[in-house]
User: Which sequence fits this backbone?
């Protein structure tokens, strides 16, 4: 008898819990859903999300925003056909477009270019004043990230390889802990951890300098091929919202910082400081030959991605680098530049 | 976790009815069944990969994984294994950490269990803490260990020890509490001191269950290796799995998973063998 009561109670609880989940409001069953993957680095994506521009511009669709912690996870979601749009770094995009992944997606927007918000810093008191001094030292960076790519690029500029230093794979928060304890001599990481490291260290090189030297790292937005061919008009609307967000970052940084701060839980002042250190293009720059290019004429981003692919091949993370044409075909230039300003 | 899902082989079948031929057939079937399941697994895998329903990233060919295994285990084109270390070196580093963590965790856990089992107020004092620790997923507190202990071996071994301690302590406590009162009282009546009762009656009767606790502890520690090697985990098999998954490198991830699983099976087999030697009276009290 007691057992029966228990089993009944268990069944009732299970049903009750299964019935109510904590879900986002505004999902209506009769409308098609657009699935957008975003990450928490400061970018126009967060402004679009916070101000519900996409929801307002596309009233006939449900918009489902999903947060991801790394580009590898975004790639996995694209492979599983669980995403229509996704934000990820240039390094994961290069990996996704190369064999064996060959993810069917296209680069449709440049969210930001790494500037002073990603940098290689050395701890004070280690007598490291320039990159060549790093030989034999312990340097931390999150592996498989854009910072990892930039670090190796900076080392090779100075005639050093990964084997000449001790590389340590740490996430930013762990870098801070190891730094405070004196376990590492230098680190290549990003904001906000970076600013805390700078209090007791000095920049050796920043991603802004590396971009000038032809090794830029970027945060990109990709759209799946299936979605882009089925709903080109939605992609156009989405690109206009992203362009509008870039305008806000440029012309009203306070409002931009406020929106982004609300999404990532930092103070607007902190975010404003971060926005100043990153490089945010204008819509006109995005559609220039240096970046995405124009309709039918893919820009220089393809070359950046090809170089990132070569880097991955050198790291033995992919069997071989994909050719430049692969990346040129994977830039979504339809209607550029006019489509951004309609 | 490695739990006893099959009864001990010595207890399977009825030995009285077994003629010599039947015995051999029984053994053959027992050996063939696991082999058969492995063969079926690989055939299903190959078919699943060939149909191409799933992307190669989700279901790579068995041959791709085999190639990855070869690549990770050898030096090829001037590249040494994965991230500069061969597979056995990754595995060796992990096993060393697990061994150190398990020895610390199990010794502390068994001592704690003996104390908690034999002294009532110690049990009431420590049990909530032990349950608290047991409920925590290692990932939740690993970051704190990094802050306190740095990024080298100390936080990893501490994490594994903390994972191994509760199962050993809980099993030992339960076993000591359950030591037959009749035997204890008989020993007392024959003039044994409290210490002698614990040494000669309580510990021997608690040992079989303690061994189960030790096996569970090893399983818990082993299932925490990826968490323990999340930061600066290379060389290490958990670090290899984590790094390869950051690059969506499924074949290497699978090689790492097989390496962890197969070495786990071997370790559990060794522990069972030790258990049979050390506590032959298991199941007979």
Assistant:
């Amino acid at each position: 008898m007691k057992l029966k009561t228990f089993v009944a109670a268990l069944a009732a609880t299970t049903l009750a819990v299964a019935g109510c989940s904590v879900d986002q409001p505004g999902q209506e069953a009769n409308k098609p859903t657009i699935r957008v993957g975003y990450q928490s680095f400061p970018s126009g994506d967060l402004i679009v999300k916070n101000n519900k521009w996409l929801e307002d511009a596309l009233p006939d669709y449900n918009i489902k925003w999903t947060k991801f912690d790394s580009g590898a996870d975004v790639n996995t979601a694209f492979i599983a056909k669980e995403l229509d749009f996704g934000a990820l770094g240039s390094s994961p995009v290069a990996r996704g477009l190369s064999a064996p992944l060959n993810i069917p997606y296209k680069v449709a927007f440049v969210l930001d270019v790494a500037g002073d918000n990603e940098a290689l810093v050395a701890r004070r008191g280690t007598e490291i004043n320039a990159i060549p001094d790093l030989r034999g030292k312990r340097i931390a960076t999150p592996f498989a990230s854009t910072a990892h790519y930039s670090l190796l690029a900076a080392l090779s500029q100075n005639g050093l390889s990964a084997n000449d230093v001790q590389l340590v794979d740490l996430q930013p928060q762990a870098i801070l802990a190891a730094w405070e304890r004196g376990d590492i001599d230098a680190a290549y990481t990003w904001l906000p951890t970076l600013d805390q490291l700078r209090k007791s260290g000095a920049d050796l090189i920043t991603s802004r300098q590396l971009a000038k030297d032809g090794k830029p790292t970027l945060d990109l937005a990709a759209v799946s091929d299936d979605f882009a061919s089925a709903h080109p008009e939605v992609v156009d609307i989405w690109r206009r919202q992203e362009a509008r967000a870039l305008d806000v970052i440029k012309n009203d940084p306070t409002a931009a910082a406020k929106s982004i701060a609300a999404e990532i839980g930092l103070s607007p002042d902190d975010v404003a400081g971060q926005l100043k250190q990153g490089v945010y293009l204008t819509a006109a720059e995005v559609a220039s030959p240096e970046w995405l290019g124009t309709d039918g004429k893919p820009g220089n981003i393809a070359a950046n991605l090809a170089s990132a692919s070569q880097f991955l091949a050198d790291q033995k993370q992919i069997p071989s680098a994909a050719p430049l044409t692969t990346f040129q075909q994977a830039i979504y230039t339809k209607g550029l530049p006019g489509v951004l300003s309609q | 976790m490695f739990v006893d899902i099959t009864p001990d082989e010595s207890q399977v079948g009825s030995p009285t009815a077994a003629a010599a031929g039947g015995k051999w057939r029984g053994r053959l079937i027992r050996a063939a069944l696991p082999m058969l399941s492995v063969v079926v697994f690989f055939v299903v895998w190959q078919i699943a990969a060939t149909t191409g329903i799933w992307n190669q990233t989700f279901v790579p060919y068995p041959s791709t994984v085999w190639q990855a295994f070869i690549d990770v285990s050898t030096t090829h084109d001037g590249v040494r294994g994965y991230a500069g270390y061969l597979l056995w070196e990754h595995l060796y580093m992990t096993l060393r950490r697990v061994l150190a963590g398990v020895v610390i965790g199990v010794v502390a856990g068994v001592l704690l269990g003996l104390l908690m089992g034999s002294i009532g107020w110690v049990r009431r004092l420590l049990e909530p803490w032990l349950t608290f620790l047991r409920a925590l997923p290692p990932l939740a507190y690993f970051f704190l260990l990094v802050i306190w202990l740095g990024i080298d071996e100390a936080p990893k071994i501490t994490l594994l020890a903390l994972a191994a301690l509760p199962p050993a302590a809980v099993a030992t406590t339960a076993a000591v509490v359950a030591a037959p009162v009749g035997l204890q009282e008989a020993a007392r009546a024959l003039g044994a001191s409290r210490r002698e009762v614990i040494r000669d009656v309580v510990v021997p009767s608690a040992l079989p269950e303690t061994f189960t606790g030790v096996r569970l502890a090893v399983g818990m520690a082993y299932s925490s290796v990826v968490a323990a090697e999340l930061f600066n985990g290379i060389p290490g098999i958990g670090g290899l799995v984590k790094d390869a998954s950051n690059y969506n490198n499924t074949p290497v991830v699978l090689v790492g998973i097989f390496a962890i699983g197969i070495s786990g099976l071997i370790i559990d087999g060794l522990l069972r063998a030790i258990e049979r030697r050390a506590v032959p009276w298991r199941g007979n009290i």
